[in-house]
Amino acid sequence: MTDRLTIRRPDDWHVHLRDGAMLEAVAGHTARTFARAIVMPNLSPPVTKVAAAQAYRERITAALPAGSGFTPLMTCYLTDNADPGEIVRGHAAGVFTACKLYPAGATTNSAHGVTDVRNIARVLEAMQRAGMPLLVHGEVTDPAVDIFDREAVFIERVLRPLLRDFPALKVVMEHITTAEAAAFVEERGDRLAATITPQHLHLSRNALFDGGLRPHAYCLPVLKRERHRLAVRRAATGGCPRFFLGTDSAPHEVARKESGCGCAGVFNAPFALESYAAVFDEEGALDRLEAFASENGARWYGLPLNEGTVTLVRGGVLVPERVGDVVPFHAGERLGWRVEA
Ligand code: DOR
Ligand code: ZN
Q1: What is the pTM of this model?
Q2: In the list 8, 38, 187, 244, which could disulfide-bond 294, CB 3.0-4.6 Å?
């Protein structure tokens, strides 16, 4: 039995680093393990301009511990009025790695999101031409659609037509949660990929109601049935190179989670790689962790692989009940692997 596992340093292809005091509190947790991360733009106001992304990137860099080699990869928040010129210019200048599509109303700070993808056809055209990836929050917002079905319906109503209309556009379906999404990504070929979070690998929707209402397990897309969790596990650990690590770490202060209207988001950054390692270990797939965490994403984005390594050690770590003002994923649990300092 392996007790140490050294892998190429991983990247997080989907993270919320926030801003201000929360950014100061969380940036170091991501930078401890990951070399790079795709940083979500759903600030208030959202990051829609090149200059705003540059300024945000500087605030992130300033919040990192001294000597951190961490590189934030910035994204542009798409609105109905998104300007193709601005976006392509930001991409060419090395500021915007990708654009994020939030259907309006789908999740935290998505009020300025896109109300209909037809409104951004010129932007998608320009991105396709520039080879710039589109990252999608893949849920419809139609209130008539059951919240547990919103991802599967998004595939049929929005994603399938979008891939048909923009046949060369590179797309990442973020934080997939369903068997339908896993199968769709697997069968589509090169230009469609998906990120997978640790919470969707560990938890089914039962976790939301385990002995009472569990706000710290609430995120969007919401946790699904057990059969979906198992399908997403098979996707992550099965070796297909178009599935890769994206934590969707989304911190909210404890009072905003434990509330009459709790915010969506799981703060998993402090023990993210440990959490994924537990899953790969349980699935007998530790030999596939490196590809999922450190290779598939970089290759898909066309970026160089990281040079350094991280070492996971069996023996475990006790996850604290609080990290600052936030309750972390796995609070109070023991995880079987820890990242060596
Ligand atoms: O649970 C979530 N939290 N899902 C999202 O899509 C956004 C995120 C956040 O920003 O809090
Ligand atoms: Zn997210």
Answers
A1: 0.98
A2: 8
